[in-house]
Write a structure and sequence with these properties.
With 388 residues, this protein is mainly alpha-helical. The chain folds into two domains: 127 residues, no CATH class; 161 residues, no CATH class. 69% of the residues lie in helices and 0% in strands. 37% of the residues are buried.
Length: 388
């Protein structure tokens, strides 16, 4: 992420007209790429569950993979909820409740049904047939398949649909007029918000530790407090025009704070884990003091990263190339279909005579590129392009 002024356009690059929202499009592209890489890292060594894994055992590879996934988890899904919510209130105001709900049911509900009933069983079959070597046809596999309600990575879409419908209900029943402008939060206010979110997350994780999943929708309730909070912050930021009120120096401050949390505090947390002989589950919840440490680290790191990216992008990433515009248009399709691309590539790479850590260096970038290429094609298809 550049902190300097955006360079002039080269002769062979076309830029779209400047827009105050292009920086959010650029952030959406970056977050979508991180989603694909996040699952690639889990495939090849980082902690976490995925359809297919081929994990390395080399500590020199596992440690950076773990850091990458932990840092991602601290902010990227909460950031998606913030960005989605930022456009929710204006969309509801423009369309009205009935049309807004109908649009959300189409744009979010149809992908949920498609993923659960078509894509999810296909993904499971690819692993069952080509990774595990079971010699059966797809129709035979479907005959014994019982996981029809499975949103997979689209748990986010299910949650977004739920949050949107709740917001509509609140908007229709609330008699309080929402503010249309307001002063942006101070740096100290954001820090205190992160601290409160960390403490609240620790309390929630006493009952719902990290890794506990609400089936069949796939919600990890140990992370959901941040998602709900960031959806609410997105609504407030949109209505109060917060994002235009931050100075660049505030973004740089949060960038340095995020670096401190990652490069200094995380290693300290790792040393605590090793010196106390604690396993990963000790940091997940159930009221342990290590889980308080992790919950606070996660929320401070995530909020600092989100604040830094939003503010710096608002000042520095206000231009977008033609390719960037196409990538932004394809981002939702990438989110839906990247499991198909990543799983197919990682299954193809099973017998490569190299350590899985090296496979990541090849499969990860390929999965990103091929997912975008597939989505570029899909958004050109009539009918499909009205949904994704």
């Amino acid at each position: 992420m550049q902190l300097t002024d955006t360079p002039p356009a080269e002769n062979d690059v076309k830029y779209s007209a400047p827009s105050k929202l292009l920086y959010i499009d650029n952030l959406k592209i970056a977050l979508t790429i991180l989603v694909v890489l996040h699952h690639a890292f889990i495939t090849y060594g980082a902690p976490g569950g995925w359809y297919f894994t081929d994990k390395t055992t080399h500590g020199g590879a596992v440690i950076p993979m773990t850091i990458f996934v932990a840092v991602n988890q601290s902010f990227f899904m909460g950031f998606f909820f913030f960005i989605s919510a930022y456009f929710t209130a204006p969309s509801l105001q423009k369309k009205g409740a009935a049309r807004f709900v109908a649009d959300r049911l189409k744009r979010l509900g149809i992908p949920l049904l498609f993923y659960s009933f078509i894509l999810s069983p296909a993904l499971s079959y690819i692993v069952y047939r080509f990774a595990k070597g079971h010699q059966i046809t797809y129709l035979q596999y479907l005959g014994g398949f019982d996981g029809w309600i499975d949103f997979g990575v689209l748990w986010f879409v299910a949650a977004l649909l739920l949050f949107s419908l709740v917001f509509v209900l609140i908007s229709l029943t609330s008699k309080t007029k929402a503010p249309q402008s307001g002063k942006a939060p101070s740096a100290w206010g954001i820090i205190l918000f992160a601290a409160g979110l960390g403490m609240a997350s620790y309390i929630v994780r006493i009952v719902f530790p990290v890794g506990w999943v609400l089936k069949p929708v796939g919600f990890q309730l140990g992370h959901f407090l941040q998602y709900i909070a960031m959806f609410g912050m997105g609504i407030l930021a949109s209505r109060s025009n917060w994002l235009n009120g931050f100075e660049l120096k505030t973004g740089r401050l949060f960038a340095w704070l995020a670096v401190f949390m990652i490069l200094v505090v995380f290693p300290v947390m790792f040393l605590v884990k090793e010196s106390t002989h604690s396993d990963i589950e000790t940091f997940s919840g159930q009221g342990r003091w290590q889980s308080l440490m992790y919950a606070c680290w996660e929320q401070f790191t995530g909020i600092f990263i989100m604040a830094a990216l939003l503010i710096i992008a608002r000042h520095r990433l206000t231009r977008q190339s033609t390719i960037g515009k196409s990538m932004s248009r394809a981002a939702f399709g990438v989110y839906i279909f990247h499991p198909l691309v990543l799983i197919s590539l990682s299954v193809i790479a099973i017998n490569w005579p190299i350590d899985p850590g090296y496979k990541l260096l090849i499969v990860g970038p390929l999965a990103v590129a091929c997912s975008f290429l597939l989505s570029f094609i899909l958004v050109k298809i009539p009918g499909v392009n009205k949904i994704i």
